[in-house]
Design brief:
Elements lengths: L2 H4 L3 E9 L5 H10 L12 E9 L2 E9 L10 H6 L2 E7 L3 H17 L5 E6 L11 H10 L3 E4 L7 H36 L17 E3 L2 H4 L2 H13 L2
Parallel strand pairs: 1-3, 1-4, 4-5, 5-6
Antiparallel strand pairs: 2-3, 2-7
The protein binds guanosine-5'-triphosphate.
Guanosine-5'-triphosphate binds next to helix 2.
Length: 235
């Protein structure tokens, strides 16, 4: 993709959180690559970058897969950085639902408007089920977020529909915000004869995943801006 096209592609940042072993890495890799990999290293957060085709439009997606979501190490930076959040629990582990409930509370305290989807993973393990679907659905309703039970192992369609839908929601919000800014740049562009505003061709569905160090996230301007905004708002 040419640089000028790349600059016109919307970008959405997603944080995937949940108790250890619920399937966050498997979900992230499944969503981005359509592949299922059984075992992952789990001692580091990973940041993935990929340009996807979401609803027939290219979208640059960054996903941080947070390896430890123990409440004492709540991933505050990831939540400030993200435009949306996926909270995962494991239907075969009751504790993971309690954990998800606590994470949801913390996320909403920090970013009350953040779009969230709650996913109950490992629905293929029906014989080991400890969490009924209605419990997950109730938690989602209480926290005003989307909800699906999925099996990353069995490639549930809801993995794609739910994440696509939340990414689209973010893109629409950004689109509205950008329209205001764009009218100014468009006016300047017209004055100096710029041809900005080309729609990038959709070339990259299923491209490669680049694994980045999470320090990239902590250096990002968006994170500092949102942290400062919250600090100022609470003065
Ligand atoms: N049966 C089944 N196993 C799954 C599913 N998704 C993930 N797993 C398995 O669950 C285990 C944990 O998956 P991970 O993706 O490493 O979980 P994680 O939440 O990233 O774990 P941490 O990195 O420790 O936080 C692995 O053995 C996966 O193969 C699923 O849908 N069904």
């Amino acid at each position: 993709m040419k640089t000028e096209d790349k600059n016109n592609v919307a970008k959405v940042r997603l944080a995937v959180i949940g108790k250890s072993h619920v399937g966050k890495s498997a979900l992230t890799v499944r969503y981005l690559t359509r592949r299922y990999i059984g075992e992952y290293r789990s001692n580091t957060d990973l940041l993935y970058r990929q340009t996807l085709n979401v609803n027939n439009n290219p979208l640059e997606v960054e996903v941080v897969d947070v390896c430890s979501c123990e409440l004492s190490l709540f991933p505050e930076e990831a939540i400030y950085w993200a435009d949306a959040c996926v909270v995962v629990y494991d239907v075969t582990c009751k504790e993971s639902l309690t954990h998800a409930a606590e994470l949801l509370e913390r996320v909403i305290q920090l970013r009350s408007q953040l779009p969230i989807v709650l996913l109950g993973n490992k629905s293929d393990l029906e014989h080991l089920r400890q969490v009924e679907e209605v419990e997950g659905r109730t938690l989602a309703i209480q926290n005003n977020c989307q909800f699906h039970e999925v099996s990353v192992a069995e490639n549930s369609k809801a993995i794609y529909t739910s994440i696509d839908s939340i990414l689209n929601e973010c893109r629409s919000v950004q689109g509205t915000q950008k329209t205001r800014k764009f009218s100014v740049s468009k006016m300047i562009g017209t004055l100096i004869g710029s041809t900005n505003g080309k729609v990038a061709p959709n070339t990259n569905q299923g491209g490669t995943v680049v694994v980045c160090h999470k320090a990239d996230l902590y250096r990002s301007r968006i994170l500092r801006r949102r942290q400062n905004f919250t600090a100022t708002a609470s003065l």
